[in-house]
Amino acid sequence: MAQSKACSPSCQSFKCAKNSVIFRRDTIWCKETEEQCNVAKCTYSMCMKRRMLPEGVCGETIKRKTIDKDVDDFPDESVRLKGKALRKLGDQEFF
């Protein structure tokens, strides 16, 4: 099973909101802090695909979990409508 990976500033979807990223030799530096860019701690780091999760984890590397809900979980009550919806649909009960 694949492990989740941390987002890195070398990703094509990474963007710094302050435009403070500088590529120096083999590392990526931040002009604001004069240190290496740390995506997990920076408040200005963002993903253009909106996939970055808290703590700098890349959302594209995480497998989604789905949960199937049975119909039996819901109560057997009808829905009463009021106002405009009642006028449009008439005096009917919907399940």
Topology:
Layout: E1 14-16, E2 21-24, E3 27-30, E4 35-36, E5 45-47, E6 52-53, E7 57-58, H1 84-89
Antiparallel strand pairs: 1-5, 2-3, 3-4, 6-7
Molecular structure report:
- Helix content is 6%, strand content 21%.
- With 95 residues, it is mostly beta strands.
- It has a domain at 1-63.
- Strands 2-3-4 form a 3-stranded antiparallel β-sheet, with no helix packed on it. Strands 1-5 form a two-stranded antiparallel sheet.
- The longest helix has 6 residues, at 84-89.
- The assembly state of the depicted protein chains is single chain
Unreliably modeled segments: none
- Per DSSP E runs of 2 or more residues, the count of β-strands stands at 7
Backbone shape? elongated
H/E topology pattern: EEEEEEEH
Q: Sketch the major β-sheet.
A: 3 strands, antiparallel
Number of helices: 1
Strand content: 15-25%
Helix content: under 10%
> How would you classify the helix and strand content by structural class?
mainly beta
Rg, rounded, reads 24 Å
Mean pLDDT: 76
Q: Roughly how many Å apart are the termini?
A: 42 Å
Q: Main sheet: which strands, in order across?
A: 2-3-4
Keywords:
single chain; 95 residues; mainly beta; 3-stranded antiparallel beta sheet; two-stranded antiparallel sheet; 7 strands; elongated
Brief overview:
This protein has 95 residues and is mostly beta strands. Helices cover 6% and strands 21% of the residues.
